[in-house]
Amino acid sequence: RHITLDRSMWGSDQAASLEPAGVKLLTANIRRLEKALGNGIKGVLDAERSAMHKLRRRSDF
Hints:
Elements: H1 20-37, H2 49-56
Protein name: PseI/NeuA/B-like domain-containing protein
Organism: marine metagenome
Domain PseI/NeuA/B-like: 1-42
């Protein structure tokens, strides 16, 4: 992204640029997204273990 001190300044890029507050918000949202994506390692959470064991039981039909 482009960064500007004031979006009302003259120039073709100013209107499409972010002011410092916008950069701060963009950065905060990127950090939140990084946390939401996790570390990429797949595994079973402790809260999921009981359901996993119930679903693994075999039915005798």
